[in-house]
Amino acid sequence: MTGETYLKFEHGPIPKHLNQIMDEFKKSNWILEKEVQAGGYPMVKYIPCEKPSLKTLKQREKKVIDDMINQLSNKSAKDISEYSHNDIPWRVTEPNDVIDYELAFYREEPYTVREYDLEDEF
């Protein structure tokens, strides 16, 4: 969805251009940066300045996002990290390397969410 390249870092996956993206968002006043405490540790929280438009997303893309939010919203950062690190793309990628998008086609349950539709082929 993002078109971004992701890297396998210890606490990743991390978007390759995360710092540049966040700097651009802050300069454009799309987000505010706020320091908060989480679990006794300092954390940076990003707050959107306006409600995002979902017009470009297909209904099934929105459903995938909603399903992931429902599945993971009550999890800790550690739980989510462990979840992502059990997925095949993470497991087969070497540390600090780019995670190949093609690996998404080799996912196993519960990570597969792709529903094939003939419309996608044309």
Q: How does this structure look, described?
A:
With 122 residues, this protein is α+β, with helices and mostly antiparallel strands. Helices cover 31% and strands 16% of the residues. The chain contains four helices and four strands. Strands 1-2 form a two-stranded antiparallel ribbon. Strands 3-4 form a two-stranded antiparallel sheet. The chain is globular, with a radius of gyration of 16 Å.
Write the layout of secondary structure elements.
Elements: E1 6-7, E2 14-15, H1 18-27, E3 31-38, E4 41-48, H2 59-72, H3 77-85, H4 88-92
Antiparallel strand pairs: 1-2, 3-4
Main attributes?
122 residues; alpha+beta; two-stranded antiparallel sheet; 4 helices; globular
Overall morphology: globular
Kindly, what is the distance between the CA atoms of the first and last residues, rounded to a whole number of angstroms? 19 Å
Q: Tally the helices: what do you get? A: 4
Return residue spans where pLDDT drops below 50 for at least 5 consecutive residues.
none
Task: Name the average pLDDT.
Answer: 86
Share of helix, binned: 25-40%
Strand-pairing-aware structural class: alpha+beta
Percentage of β-strand residues: 15-25%
**Estimated radius of gyration:** 16 Å
Order of helices and strands: EEHEEHHH
Largest sheet: 2 strands, antiparallel
Oligomerization state of this entry?
single chain
What is the spatial order of strands in the main beta sheet? Answer: 1-2
Beta-strand segment tally: 4
